[in-house]
């Protein structure tokens, strides 16, 4: 007898709207990222897919990214500013003297290699082809293999390594509220291109506004093997066995993949309300699974497999 092999993992997808031209235009960026966090090293690896739509009337020869965490390194542009302005931000200073005799230094200048922030680009491709790039501080300049024509859409695939800085400037480690890792502006972020051109200034003091993308639903891919084709049910249950969602599909013999959007049925909503579990309701009026562990079962012609997923 052949068993099911069931794997569930979370991913996020986004769709891209059709390009429209008018007196006003704005570029569109849609990110999909797979991130692995090492909480012992305070480092993370990332795979980023960025679909970029050029809604401008011009062709683009270059694109620029922000690498914000690179600002939190000794001798960075931000560090130099903290040490040179008359009234530096107190959050950026550390007293290395006594309580009575203050001697203040830039916190950034005191960071050790395992405390600095960084985003290192490991690889970058345009439509599957490697492209050259140059990093200067918090800026990444990308020289395109091919122009992005007006109205054209291209895909950038990037692999990167990041480290969360051991200080807090919105993002960082161990804030006063007891949060170990505050993740703000932590990923390679495409700079804005508008009627004034590229806004690719280095991060010295304040952040910059960003491009918009389409909103999207969270989703989980449910992969399973079916010994034969036919009607198959996928059941999502709470840890105590209460049904939260029932999905009926036509499966094929062999490997199947179902994209589950983490929504809850009316029956599931009632079960969670009875258990006094707080629900998550989106702007689209749908209810989604709250944080927790859930059982996922797949049933096909009396063959059954079950696993557990966690929503964090």
Brief descriptors of the model:
Immunoglobulin-like, globular, four-stranded antiparallel β-sheet, 3 domains, mainly beta, 312 residues
Quick gist of this model?
The protein is built from two helices and 25 strands. By secondary structure, the protein is mostly beta strands. It starts with 6 loop residues before the first strand and ends with a strand.
What does this structure look like?
With 312 residues, the chain is mostly beta strands. It folds into 3 domains: 17-73 and 114-199, Immunoglobulin-like; 77-110, no CATH class; 218-311, Immunoglobulin-like. The chain contains 2 helices and 25 strands. The protein has helices at residues 77-84, 266-274, and strands at residues 7-12, 28-38, 43-53, 60-66, 93-95, 104-106, 118-126, 129-130, 132-136, 139-148, 153-163, 168-169, 171-173, 181-182, 189-190, 192-194, 197-199, 218-226, 230-237, 243-251, 254-260, 280-281, 287-288, 292-300, 303-311. The strands form 8 sheets. It has a 5-stranded antiparallel sheet, with no helix packed on it. Strand 12 (168-169) and strand 13 (171-173) form a beta hairpin. The protein is globular, with a radius of gyration of 24 Å. It starts with 6 loop residues before the first strand and ends with a strand.
- Annotated CATH architecture of the largest domain: Sandwich
The count of helical stretches stands at: 2
Number of strands: 25
* Strand and helix order: EEEEHEEEEEEEEEEEEEEEEEHEEEE
Could you describe the largest sheet, including whether it forms a barrel? 5 strands, antiparallel
CATH superfamily of the largest domain: tricorn interacting facor f3 domain
- By CATH reckoning, the class of the largest domain would read Mainly Beta
Helix content: under 10%
State the low-pLDDT regions, or none.
1-22
Here the CATH topology of the largest domain equals Immunoglobulin-like
Please tell me how large the radius of gyration is: 24 Å
